[in-house]
Amino acid sequence: MANESGLVKGPLVCVVMDGVGIGRKDEGDAVHLAHTPVLDQLGQRCPTVALRAHGTAVGLPSDDDMGNSEVGHNALGAGRVFDQGAKLVNGAIASGRIWEGPWRECVARVKSSGQPLHLLGLLSDGNVHAHIAHLFALLERAAAEEVRQVRVHALLDGRDVPETSALEYVEQLEAKLAALSVGGRRYCVASGGGRMKVTMDRYEADWPMVARGWQLHVRGEGRGFPSLRAAVETLRAEDPGVSDQNLPGFVITEGGAPTGRIEDGAAVILFNFRGDRAIEICRAFEDARFTAFERGPRPDVLFAGMMQYDGDLKLPARFLVAPPEIEGTLSERLAARGVPQLAISETQKYGHVTYFWNGNRSERLSGESWIEIPSDALPFDERPWMKAAEITDRLIAELRTGRYRFARVNYANGDMVGHTGVLDAARVAVEAVDLSLGRLVRAVTALDGALLVTADHGNADEMVERDKKGNLQRGEGGRFKPKTSHSLNRVPCHLVGAPAGVGLRSDEEAGLANVAATVLDLLGEPVPAAYERSLLVR
C-alpha cells in the first residue's frame, strides 16, 4: 500500500523542463536571456543541485556525447544507468554479434532475389538517433559478404549536428560508396530529405511526414536529382537559409528512372538506433492492417531495425542489436506499492514521460494514468509557448482531485523550440515554461505537496555555435550562427516545498539517475540497493 508517512504530505510532482540546461549566461544562452522570475527564485531560495545529463551519466559511450530525451527519461525513470543505443551498437559491432541472426537473413534474402539491400536512416554523427560510422560498418560488411547491390536512403540532420552541415556527411558517404562500388558491386544513394520533412515523425504527430518518406523510399516518386550532393546544393539555393532538417524530400535518378525503389525480394534495414522517430516507418513496413495513410501495395521485403524500438509492440520483429533491458523502474516500484501515479505532456514528449520513463514499455501500469495534450502541427518557432498552459491547466485540475500521490510532467518547449535554432523564439519558450511553472508551484504547495524541478538535457541554454576556443560564432552579416543540437551542459534540480531541514546534497557525480531514489525518499518508500543514491540530506 502507498506510504502516507513520507516527507511530503501532499502530491509530489517531478517537472522535466525539456532542453533547459545550465548555460554560460551569455548572448547565446536563451535560458539566461529569458525573463524567468520563478526559476530565478527557485535557484536562490530552494535546495538546488546541478545534475549530469549527458555522456556516461546516461549510458552513452563517452562524455563527448550529448544527452537526449530518450536516454534522459530512461535514467530518470530507471534510477540507474544502462548502456544505451549508441554504446550497445558500438559493442555489437566490435564483438561481431551484430552480424548474426537478422543480418544473415537480410544478406541471404538479397543474394537469393538479386534485389538490393536498402539502408535507411539519419546521415549524421550526432549519435542521438544514428551515427554515420554504423552505416559505414553495414556497408563494409555488405561488401565483404559480396552483396552486389546496396541502396542508401539518407535522411539529413541539421538538428543534432550544425544546421547546415549535411555536405560534410554527403562527401563522406559518396566517397565510401564509390570506394565500395568495385568488382561488380553497385552501391549508391536512392532517396533522401530533411528529417523534419520526411519519414522521422514521432508519436503520430504528423503521419503525412511518414507518407512522404514512403513515396520517396519505396515508390521512388519525388523530385529527381543526379546525386545526393546535387539535391542538397539545389534545394539550398532555392531556399537560402533553410536548415538541413527542413530540406524537401527527393529521389536520385539515372536516365530518368529512380535508382532504388524498394521492391519485392529486397531487404531493408533501418539503421537508426533510437526508437521514437523509428516506430511509424516500421509500422508502415510491418503492419498488415496499416491505415495511417494510403501506402498502396506493400512490397514483400525482409525488414529489420538496428534495434527493437518498442518491446511491447514488438516493433520491428527483426532487429540487429538487442535494446537495454530495463527492469524495476520507479513506476513499477510505485505501482507495486499501490502508489497512484500520473504522467502528462503534449504529443511531442508524451512518449518520453510514459514509454521511455517506464523503461521502454508502452503499456500503463496498475494505478497509473497517462494524459496526452495534442500538440500543434505548426513550426515550433511560430508557437514557442506550445501547450505549456494547457498541460498546466490539466495537471493542476488532476492534482486537485486528490487521486495522485506522484505525478511527472514534461514541458517540451526548451527542446522543440531550441532545435529550430531561433534564439528569440527559444527565449519565449523558456519564459512560457517559467510562467507555467509558477502556476504549478503555487498549486502544488497549496496542496501541501512538493516538486522536483529538473531537465532531461540541455538545448535552449546553448543556441549559438562556438569555435574551438568557446567563442560564439558569427556568420554572414555578423549574425550569430544558430546551434540546433543539444548541449553538454548540466541541468538544474530544484526541490520546492521541502520540509524544514531537508535539502539536496552537492555531488559532482550526481546525474539524472539519482532522481528516482530521491522521489522514493520523499515519498517514504524504500530505495532499492541497485539505485543511484538519493540526493536528499536531512
The CATH superfamily name of the largest domain is Alkaline Phosphatase, subunit A
Shape descriptor = globular
Number of H/I helices: 16
Number of strands: 18
Identify the CATH class of the largest domain: Alpha Beta
Binned, the helix content reads 25-40%
Say what the CATH topology of the largest domain is. Alkaline Phosphatase, subunit A
Uncertain spans: none
Quickly count the domains.
Answer: 2
Based on the structure given, which CATH architecture of the largest domain is correct?
3-Layer(aba) Sandwich
The biggest sheet, with number of strands, parallel, antiparallel or mixed sense and barrel status, is:
9 strands, mixed
Quick summary:
With 538 residues, this protein is an alpha/beta fold. It has helices spanning 30-33, 37-45, 69-78, 85-95, 102-113, 132-144, 166-180, 207-219, 228-238, 279-286, 330-336, 347-356, 388-400, 413-416, 423-446, 514-523, and strands at residues 12-17, 48-51, 117-123, 149-156, 186-194, 224-225, 250-254, 257-258, 267-270, 302-307, 319-321, 341-346, 368-373, 406-411, 450-454, 491-496, 503-504, 536-537. The strands form three sheets. Strands 3, 4, 5, 6, 7, 8, 9, 10 and 11 form a nine-stranded mixed sheet that branches. Strands 2-16-15-1-14-12-13 form a seven-stranded mixed sheet, sandwiched between helices.
